[in-house]
From TrEMBL:
The J domain is necessary and sufficient to stimulate DnaK ATPase activity. Zinc center 1 plays an important role in the autonomous, DnaK-independent chaperone activity of DnaJ. Zinc center 2 is essential for interaction with DnaK and for DnaJ activity. Zn(2+) 1 binds at C141, C144, C198, C201. CXXCXGXG motif repeats lie at residues 141-148, 158-165, 184-191, 198-205. It comes from Paenibacillus antarcticus. One of its GO terms (biological process) is protein refolding. Keywords: Chaperone, Cytoplasm, DNA replication, Metal-binding, Repeat, Stress response, Zinc, Zinc-finger. GO terms for cellular component: cytoplasm. Zn(2+) 2 binds at C158, C161, C184, C187. This is Chaperone protein DnaJ. It holds the Pfam family DnaJ_CXXCXGXG.
Amino acid sequence: MAEKRDYYEVLGVSKSAPDEEIKKAYRKLARQYHPDVNKADDAETKFKEVKEAYDVLSDGQKRAGYDQYGHVDPNQGGFSGGGDFGGGMGDIFDMFFGGGGRRDPNAPQRGNDLQYTMTIEFKEAVFGKENDITIPRTENCDTCHGSGAKPGTKPQTCHVCHGSGQEEVVQNTPFGRMVNRRTCSTCSGNGKIIKERCTTCQGQGKVKKQRKIHVKIPAGVDDGAQLRMTGEGEGGVRGGPSGDLYIVIRVKSHEFFEREGDDIYCEIPLTFAQAALGDDVEIPTLTEKVRLKIPAGTQTGTFFRLRGKGVPRLRGIGQGDQHVKVVIVTPSNLSDEQKDLLRQIASLDGEKTHEHEQSFFDRVKKAFRGD
């Protein structure tokens, strides 16, 4: 077993430190190493070490014995510590949050939140949608109104823990009398005992139900967005409020449009003649078809913007834009007449077609032969 560190060293204070300084040091270190905050592998061990040091140094009698005998005095029970981690947790929450005791097991408790994933079409995300969904959730039993007791009866206060949900176990050890607190084994920490259970919920106070909920999807919602529906989660306990329902939106892709924020993107094919000579073409948008003037000499990859033809802004006024990308399509099956015309155009421009040029591979072969 590893040798225990000096308690003053653990808390980082001097042997002459006053009680207030010791308490201040403990609060700081307890926050730092609390297992709910610090996820390091050794956090719980350090937390217990800090708690043990404070238990001794904060008690005048134990501190005096520790100052005289160190860790080995058998007449000043409690130096060894480490056996009341659960109790220490409660003490720390009391110190941090100003509580005067442990959490009341009979206090109202908020219900759990739920999550539901809804998949919608591209245009439904753009323009919004209303839909009914059905979710399974836990609700208060209508027969016993959430008490878990048979109608006409009510839960009784636990005679072991007297409603606190905690019971104390006293042990006499060579180092003194030790008191440990643990969850009451009689009422399982509820503070109440149900002698006659409700036959509908079997004493749980809760039942599973299928709940139909009307959902309004706002216009402009995007993939991955979450909608919060207050109070549509699982029912609370002992009169506590219900949790919330979070709806995660998944948007299907569109065969023609793509979306980036509030803007819409699409591609339109143009022939060589349309791009070279210019044209007036019809473009589909999310709501209608519009005419777009293509100027002569347009190059492939050119973008045109249609203002206000994008997605309605979810938290604003107006809409995004639609961006149209031009892609020049090269014909693959030309007639002899079409080939002839293209040769004439190339000739007028002073260009040589591949038909008049030596193939690349032929020229490579000649280079190797030394021709």
